[in-house]
Amino acid sequence: MRFSGWRVLREGLTGNKGWGPHWRDPEPKAEYDAIIIGGGGHGLSTAYYLAKNHGMTNIAVLEKGYLGGGNVGRNTTIVRANYFLEGNSEFYSHSLKLWEGLEQDLNYNVMHSQRGLINLFHSDGQRDAFARRGNAMINQGDDAELLDREGVRKYLPYLDFDTARFPIYGGLLHGRGGTARHDAVAWGYARGADQRGVDLIQQCEVTGIDIENGKVRGVQTTRGSIRAKKVGIVVAGRSGQVAAMAGMRLPIESHVLQAFVTEGLKPVIDHVVSFGMGHFYISQSDKGGLVFGGDLDFYASYASRGNLPMAEHVMEAGMTLMPMIGKAKVLRSWGGIMDMTPDGSPIIDKTETEGLFINGGWCYGGFKAVPGSGYSLAHLMATGDHHAPAAKFRLDRFRSGVGILDEEGTGSQHNLH
Question: If we measure between CA atoms, which residue out of 376, 373, 378 comes closest to residue 361?
């Protein structure tokens, strides 16, 4: 089933009776060439690129719940490539390029909107830091423009520029940044992988990883044993728990990150805006809701729910920056489980067990990394070689200290990145 304008018109005129399911609901087979644990954005994109780029189609994606029911459906949908450090910079630049062709590649409307991202700064020191970051982005081949106070006012006239505590000095505009529809991204990759023969198996929880003589042999699941020579762990906030099934202790803590959405409003916020003096970022969805998020809850937890003190903190930051949103009614909030590494940067690597791969530690950056993450892990699983843009995301950097990617410069504390 291929989507096109003509198809939508024809179905609309004939009662929409020609649409079918976007993917099959197969029973698990006894053996696959590769298994991906985790049916979120990263797992589905890995399966898609394994099939598309490397011709591997005897693949299963095992998801304990339903496809897209985890972090890919629990985020603020921001897409950007505004990183500073070598390693992160080339990876997210590559991922952004994949985003820009994703809808044509998948033949699926993921509602990618390059509306521009503006990071605000509120001191001379912050201005200098953003100037350096902008230069790094340009050197990487991406876009960046340093705005002064009046430059920001041109784009965001509704901000409170003269608040006594955090006056706005300017901002860094990343014009190719923006948003995408999170669940559509999962559905698009699922549909694309299914069309290439990948089995997407829902309600199938992995309960064990079979290892013999240092090699992975398959997995145990709630739907029976499944053999495979290659297994990828791609489970976001549950990375530590699943890796423990293989006897690994990952340098990861899981923390809850809350997000909120208001009632639908007329178009009022055209960009993605990030507050420089509080962990607050906001955009407006295509349905009109204001979508915004804040900082971690700071204590380790696997609970995908937030708490009132952090909700209050986020609302305070929002009201400080843009008091005009104060009358909007918050409809709902949700929490995603962030797999935080000590340096705030991710892991895409082999493990000491032959055939077992790990993709995790995405901290706050998981959604925008979905295309690049799947592309790079698929390359590693298929060829055995690291994909160049993700070559610095090695697991052993936390053991040796060589190649640490402390993007925020906050040291080895998981919850500060």
Answer: 373
